[in-house]
Design brief:
The protein has 383 residues and is α/β, with parallel strands linked by helices. It is built from eleven helices and 16 strands. The protein binds flavin-adenine dinucleotide.
Length: 383
């Protein structure tokens, strides 16, 4: 365990790594970063498979995208990005379509050749025909946005698999909008900046944490430290908030995913990085083929896929997506009150906030937390 550090950072994902980097470089403070996993990078961790040479994202495909210039410029200190632009395909009844629904999807699905304005009126008509005036569940909400046929094909089975719950039993406010385009733009994200770190996510994290003021201890669980935590002036905790309080108010619900990894003796397995599977009778939701994230790299002879199976998170599974039932939100409020009473501890990141947040929002939350909360505490101490 690190000696002579003033601040303990629990979690070497983006939240912990950004705060560690800022403390070390901007405030000149010694920090100790621990992670219970054997690697840095949190859920963004990637590594190159020895057998195939393919760089795999171990916790699912991670595509960096942002329109926030501060976030983008901050990351450019540690990495360059390649020119990858994300496009998602969906298989339904053995046909392949692009997602989110665009003019190409609509024309292929309905077997027609509509112009953008014809397609917009056609979908309006489909929505009216479905006759859902006051949606009370996810199914009705989705139908009120895109009409029943597109819902049945692209949303119903996928949602059922992802949440293992009938969409009629999920609250309407799970979705506020379903992106739909009336042109042939197939890009998944609309952000100004997008790409994959040129040398991979792990290299990015290595560079962030490579500083004489930062010590990293892997395979180290915060809950095993016991009395040793008392030595730190400040703890930045990016683990699950309910676990910190020993689940005193109850457990927050998470969904997780299981990946089935396969190496293939061909140079290209599916022709794209992510293929969704919309049919409810197919037990998985997506297949990731990571080599497509690096079109600039030398072409490899073989490839790797990860097939994604969603499931409920039990005690031994990594939490991935917060379920956010009304009970969860009530529990979260109670935990947030407890968190405010922990003067020496700052909670953050996707597990600490119990919120799904993209990488850019995590980085911005960490930068803001450092600037608005941590820096002033450090300055006071130094005066
Ligand atoms: C399947 C999936 C795909 C995603 N794809 C994208 C994408 O394409 N683009 C995008 O922008 N975002 C994506 N995200 C979101 C992205 O993963 C998060 O924004 C990011 O990982 C959040 O960083 P974090 O530091 O908050 O959490 P994490 O990366 O989870 O880091 C938290 C760390 O804390 C450690 N920890 C927890 N408890 C303890 C403990 N007791 N002791 C020690 N260490 C502990 C964990 O081991 C973990 O390493 C995706 C998320 C998921 C689930």
């Amino acid at each position: 365990m690190c000696k002579n550090s003033d601040v303990l950072i629990v979690g070497a994902g983006f939240f912990g790594a950004v705060i560690a980097e800022r403390l070390a470089v901007d405030s000149g403070i010694k920090v100790c970063v621990i992670d219970k996993r054997p690697h840095i990078g949190g859920n963004c961790y990637s590594s190159v498979d020895d057998e195939t040479g393919v760089e795999c994202h171990h916790y699912g495909s991670h595509i960096f995208h942002t329109s926030n210039e501060r976030c983008w410029n901050y990351l450019l200190n540690f990495t360059q990005f390649n020119a990858y632009r994300h496009v998602v395909h969906t298989k339904y009844r053995n046909q392949v379509y692009t997602m989110p629904i665009n003019l190409g999807t609509i024309n292929a699905f309905y077997g027609c050749n509509l112009t953008p304005s014809d397609a917009a009126s056609f979908i309006r008509h489909e929505v009216e025909r479905s006759d859902v005036k006051h949606p009370v569940n996810l199914e009705e909400k989705a139908i009120s946005l895109i009409g029943r046929p597109l819902y049945d094909a692209f949303i119903k089975g996928y949602t059922l698999k992802q949440w293992e719950t009938d969409p009629r039993e999920l609250p309407a406010d799970v979705i506020t909008r379903l992106p739909m385009r009336f042109d042939y733009n197939t890009r998944y994200f609309d952000d100004v900046h997008e790409g994959i770190p040129l040398n991979g996510y792990s290299r990015l994290f290595e560079r962030m944490l490579d500083h004489p003021n930062i010590e990293v201890c892997l395979n180290t669980n915060f809950f095993d430290l016991g009395e040793r935590c008392k030595n730190y002036e400040l703890i930045v905790y990016s683990g699950p908030i309910d676990q910190y309080f020993n689940y005193s108010e109850g457990r927050l619900n998470w969904r997780t995913v299981r990946f089935d990894m396969q190496r293939h003796d061909c140079s290209d397995y599916q022709g794209c990085s992510v293929m969704n599977y919309a049919d409810s009778w197919i037990p998985f939701t997506r297949i990731h083929e990571f080599k497509h994230f690096h079109p600039e790299r030398q072409q490899l002879q073989s490839t790797i896929t990860y097939t994604e199976y969603p499931q409920a998170a039990s005690q031994n599974w990594d939490p991935f997506y917060p379920v956010n039932t009304p009970r969860d939100l009530e529990l979260l409020q109670k935990y947030n009150v407890l968190a405010q009473q922990e003067n020496r501890v700052i909670f953050g990141g996707r597990l600490g906030y119990y919120r799904y947040i993209d990488m850019d929002d995590t980085i911005m939350a960490a930068l803001d937390c450092y600037e608005n909360e941590i820096r002033s505490r450090i300055a006071l101490r130094l005066i």
